[in-house]
Amino acid sequence: MYCIKCGVKLADSEKKCPLCGTVPFHPDIRLEEGEPLYPPDRYPRQQVNRKGILGVVTMLLLMPVFITLICDLSLHGRVTWSGYVMGAIALGYVAAVLPCWFRRPNPVIFVPCGFAAAGLYVLYIDLMTGGGWFLSFAFPVVGFLGLLVTAVVTLSRYIRRGRLYIYGGAMIALGAFMPLMELLMMITFRLPRFAGWSLYPLVALALLGGALIFLAICRPARESMERKMFL
User: Fold this and answer.
1) CA angle 192, 197, 199 (to 5 degrees)
2) Cβ atoms within 10 Å, residue 85
3) pTM: predicted TM-score of the whole model, two decimal places
4) How far apart are CA 177 and CA 42, in angstroms?
5) What's the CA gap between 61 and 85, in Å, rounded?
6) Cα–Cα distance between 47 and 13 in angstroms, integer?
7) What pLDDT is recorded for position 89?
8) In angstroms, how far is CA 167 from the centroid of its own chain?
């Protein structure tokens, strides 16, 4: 028999098309039982010990922490460059490894935790270098990005419909923030003038966000795009 949608030849044992997933017959019609194409799995799959793997990953990440700390203390007698290494490893651990310890990690909680860790790491760099640019530049940028990404993740998680509006609005908001970020750079780092490079991402993100909102409003255009993009 053949699939009624894509024309792929099906074996008697197949209940649906392996390519497109279409059921070749009406579900009320009884199908003839054929010989399976593949032998049954005689060896059951072994479950992976997730906590054991995470423990190994944690130990592997602690090794460069101790090595860099010992080398830095032996050379300089205090924490200098090793603090950057330990901070980067801690930031990566909070962002990528820490959520894996939970069976069902909630991104609404861990996304702002990741941005908070990034803000603390940037604050440490500012204090170690004496730059004085954290409150006037890094904190507003990291804070805005954290709020924006957290809002997108929260709305996408708890609102099933209207994701195109969410993504489009987030792009427009990010584009609108670009001139403000350039202004903060000009004030913090005492740049001679407003260069205007932020207008390019502003226009690009506004166009992309507007296109997503247009697709959300216009159903025929959205369905046509879904057919063309195989969504």
Assistant:
1) 125
2) 16
3) 0.74
4) 58
5) 11
6) 29
7) 96
8) 13
Q: Is 174 exposed, middle or buried (0-12, 13-18, 19+ CB in 10 A)?
A: buried
- Ranges of residues in the chain whose predicted pLDDT is under 50: none
DSSP, residue by residue, the chain: -B-TTT--B--TT-SS-TTT---SS-TTSPPPP---SS----SPPPPP-HHHHHHHHHHHHHHHHHHHHHHHHHHHSS-STHHHHHHHHHHHIIIIIGGGGSSS--HHHHHHHHHHHHHHHHHHHHHHHT---IIIIIHHHHHHHHHHHHHHHHHHHH--S-HHHHHHHHHHHHHHHHHHHHHHHHHHTT-SS---TTHHHHHHHHHHHHHHHHHHH-HHHHHHHHHHTT-
Residues ≥6 apart with Cβ < 8 Å to 131? 125
Per-residue pLDDT at 43: 58
Q: What is the dihedral of CA 72, 75, 79, 85, to 10 degrees?
A: -30
> What's residue 31's pLDDT?
57
Tokens of 95: 């962002």
For 120-127, which contacts have Cβ atoms below 8 Å and span 24 or more sequence positions? Answer: 121/87, 121/88, 121/90, 121/91, 124/83, 124/87, 125/84, 125/87
